[in-house]
Every structure is written in structure tokens, then in C-alpha cells.
Amino acid sequence: MIHISFQDALQTTANPALALGTRAETPDGRVWTYVQASTGGLAKGSVAVPAAVTAVDTVSSSTDSQGRIVYITKSGASWTPGQFANGWVVVDDGTGVGQVAQIYSNTADTLQLYPAYALTTALSVADSDITISTPNVVVKSAVTSLLQNATGIAQVAFAAGEYGYVLVRGVGTVMAGAALVVSEYFSTGDDTTGQVIPLAVGETLDDAQILGRAIVANAAPDQGALVFVSIT
Known about the structure:
The protein is built from one helix and 18 strands. The chain has one helix at about 5-10, and strands at about 1-5, 25, 30-35, 45-50, 55, 60-65, 70-75, 90-95, 100-105, 110-115, 130-135, 135-140, 150-155, 165-175, 185-190, 195-200, 210-215, 225-230. The chain is elongated and about 60 Å long. The two termini are about 15 Å apart.
């Protein structure tokens, strides 16, 4: 984990300064994760969740000069070069199913894997399907769902495409769609994207991802609340 200043934690940039997913700590002990905002950006206090995964059918694989299976190709894919850097890929059907690897980078039609994650079984264009996930390319949490694999909570606004930090542990602010109860838990699931709601009586970790506890409740719905964030 690296150490950053308060200014670093509370600014966004148009170009990346670090690898996505980098964990950092400010002098007060708060913990942050470095992300990129995708479509729609992030409002201050909104919950950031991973953007939609990319499902790809019928891919092939190839080796590097050392015989390691580190290339996965989808003919005609037209990806943006570098868009999946430091993301993850899982072979979810066909030959080689069950393999998981981290992506170093990509061209318009080929994923390059980190050598440490080289595949052990070659893929077949006849039946190998993959899903690509970039957990640290984020959007505002969706409405209704209590389980969204939240990455962190934005403490500043992000425009679409900008890079910066979201809070994963420590005191911060969150936008709440209902009045939070001091010392009680909250989760995603409001009727406004990015906002949280109190955890209902009887709900457990099987029902909702607990994001933290309220410290000072919001005075009315759709306002900011002071909370202790704890996202694992």
C-alpha cells in the first residue's frame, strides 16, 4: 500500500497516475482505491461499482517466445487498445473452461496476459468463451439491488473517463436516499443511482453488501450523511 496526501485523495485527473486498483493510505489512516469513472461519472458521495463485464464468444489463444499461453484473440473485436489493462478474464465455457488470468494490456483484438497468469490449457476458436471484468472501472451503483460488489465511495465528483480515488475505509460522506440511523449499517439499493439506504431489520450479509455505519444521520432523504466506510 502506498501513502498519499489529502490533496492526492481528493483530486481527479484526465490521465492515469497509477495502476487501477492501487490501494493507498492518507495520513489519517483512511484507505482508498484508485479507479477510473466510466459512463456518467460519479457524484460526490455516490457508491462506485464495477462497470458491466464484457462477454466474448469463440476466442483462440497463442504463446509467446517462451511457449507461455499469454495471448487470447477475438477476430474482429475492435477493442480500444489498453481498455482492459489490469482487468481479469475468465474462460467460462468450452475448451479451457475455469481458467482465470489477469490482463496486462490489449490491442484491438488480442488480450495479453501477465506471464504469471499464463493459461495452462490452450483455447479453441470452436467453443472457448470468455468474460472480461475491469473491477476498477466504475459507475454509480444501480437502483434497488442490495448486492452490487461496491468498490468504494467517491469523496469528490468524477467526470466520465477521469481517474482518482474512492474511499474504502474510514470517515467520509455518502448520499443517502433515506434517513440513516446513527451506528446502524447501510447498503446500496436506493431508488436513485449511487445512493444508499439503511439496512433493513433482519437483513444479513446474504441479503446485502454492508458498506459501513452512520456516524451523523442525514437530516432528510437525498442528502449527505457522515459515515464510517468499511468495504471489503
